[in-house]
Amino acid sequence: MRYLERERELLDHYLPGLDAALAARPLAALERPGGEALTAFRAAGGPGLLVPAEHGGKGADLLSAVRVQRAVGSRSPSLAVATTMHHFSVASLVETAAVNDGPEWLLLSAIAQDRLLLASGFAEGRTGQGILSPSLTARVDGDKVWLSGSKKPCSLARSMDLLTASVVLPDPDGSPRMAVALVPADSPGVSVRPFWDSPVLAGAESEEVVLEDVEVPSDLVVRTDVTADGRLDRLQTAGFVWFETLMTASYLGAASALVERLLSAPKAGTAARAEAATVLHGAVLALDGLARTAGTPDENVLADALVCRYAAQRAIDQVADLCVEALGGMAFISSGDVAYLNSACRALAFHPPSRNRMAGALADHFTGHPLHIS
């Protein structure tokens, strides 16, 4: 079997034509702002990848989604990173719909049929702040909710149809409770400002989304059971498992693009080619194993997902160093692809929760304490 053949065949099964469309374009063209990758993703039905088949979607399970994201990341890291945020939001909606009697199924059907893209307004990217901490403030008057604030960076900022955001709302007894709001991108008061100055992953459209007293329909506000001490409810736990596994798969895909180039360069030497492919494939197998056995996500599954993610970070750093050195100066000089992929694949370390922030929580978890996300 050729390298990445399994993943690309699965991508073609779920999203016909997407791999061919991406392969036909130079990497630089796919990674720039306003590139053609997101257009191709929509055209292939990508927004409905995780929507159950009975609601018009592709019905991919976690293992299939992990392999699809690796294939996408090998062609366009920006597309993989951006669409992971969409898939994370969709997976959370699917989990919510399974236990609620609200309008989530109607929304999921619309996502699949109308090919809507969801951006994520969670607190990702704010140094020193936990991912569960809301980046927006809410004003409540009866059943009406207005949101203000900004999210930066926010992937899919210019292509999104809906923004999903965490907010704190009062319970009937006045105690604070986390909720998830879905904000239509064309709502009055929603705007996008430039933020991402780096050329790396620029195609993910990670700009600043600003909300100025934006009214959110009550049926687009979903309350959760997240407690004040950071303990996770079922919805949040499932969402984090999907986020960590799919984001890890996306960056493993970017690193796989480097390994693929190395395997195609016999002059690089057999030992280097075998070592790079073996190290990265070990991380891939660990992530596949997690996805295959995840079942109903709980704290133990989430801890396993974090372990896979942090192990993948180390593998990616090792493999990127191997590939750049083995491919040599001429490969680095003659094309920007090697330098670009070398930078892009390492950005997994920037996504929350960071390895340092979770060190104490994981150590406590492995000694029998509840898992906290910070």
Automatic annotation (TrEMBL):
It comes from Streptomyces tagetis. PANTHER family: ACYL-COA DEHYDROGENASE, ACYL-COA DEHYDROGENASE FADE28. It comes from the Bacteria. Keywords: FAD, Flavoprotein, Oxidoreductase. Pfam families: Acyl-CoA_dh_M. This is Acyl-CoA/acyl-ACP dehydrogenase. One of its GO terms (molecular function) is flavin adenine dinucleotide binding. Residues 122-214 form the Acyl-CoA oxidase/dehydrogenase middle domain.
